Amino acid sequence: MGSSSGARALDTASYTLTVSKDPRFLQTVYDLTAKTAELLGCHARAAVALTDAVQLIVEAIVGARVQPSGAGLIDVRFEADPETLRVEIAVEPPAGHRPGWTVETALVERRQLDALRRLMPDAEFVTRGQWHICRLLCTLSPRP
Fold this sequence. Notes:
The chain is of the alpha+beta class. It contains 5 helices and 5 strands.
């Protein structure tokens, strides 16, 4: 009974992980994404696609030249209802960014936007103030 009520509590859960862009900490984002998808009941293929998509996005944000001392932060928000897990990755532009930088342009520059679209066709890119955001959805399996 305890685990069932715990699973039900997750049905409407929302939380945000704020993590450094320092590459040493990025595995935490991938692990938490995979575990959250598993606990909430994403179909196995959808959970893998979601985790792979998060990894593509985060790697595009971080880039190849991040220095741990000036890394900045990434917010990863997880929000669930009984049918859907929504993941929102939000970041301020990197220091010294070019005008027009967005998460989407970072993916294009790395030639990863098509790969993201194959994993998550409905990925959405928005800007809110200084924050550049990518939103992803994973449909959950019905619970008995």
